[in-house]
Specification:
five-stranded antiparallel beta sheet, 5 strands, alpha+beta
């Protein structure tokens, strides 16, 4: 889903992750030229982080509807392996292994990208609920439909 930009601000794109080891994993992609958050003027940084939080709000709503064991969300802006500005939203669940529950999601290692966690048609309902929730959150935040 596109988050609108204007003449002064680049667009942002909300996408569901190719891997769903933690169902609802999403990213916010910045469509302008930026590698680091600090490459942006402060007003644009604030909009990017606001939009990341709005995507998180939608993910929380949809994931809570799909799994009552939703515990919290983790937000990250990394850029270590993909050097374009983007943010991650990782839903975290009570059913996660205890030794991984309290640490960063990256501790899952290769398990995160295992074929059984690939985005597929079984995620269509969750993806649709995230899209619907994000549409409502954006309409409220930016006063548009």
């Amino acid at each position: 889903m596109r988050v609108p930009g204007d003449a002064q601000h680049a667009e942002r794109w909300a996408v569901i992750g190719d891997t769903q080891h933690l169902p609802g994993y999403c990213l916010l992609l910045y469509a302008g030229r930026a590698n680091h958050l600090t490459d942006l003027p402060r007003a644009e940084r604030a909009l990017f982080l606001l939009d990341l939080s709005l995507l998180g709000e939608a993910v929380q709503t949809a994931c809570g509807k799909h799994d009552e064991q939703l515990r919290r969300l983790n937000y990250e802006v990394l850029g270590n392996s993909w050097e374009y500005l983007h943010g991650h939203i990782h839903p975290r669940y009570e059913w996660e292994p205890p030794h991984l529950l309290r640490g960063p999601v990256w501790r899952y290692g290769q398990e995160r990208t295992a074929p059984e966690h690939a985005l597929g048609s079984r995620h269509d309902s969750l993806r649709q609920d995230i899209k619907q929730a994000l549409t409502g959150v954006l309409a409220e935040a930016y006063d548009y439909d």
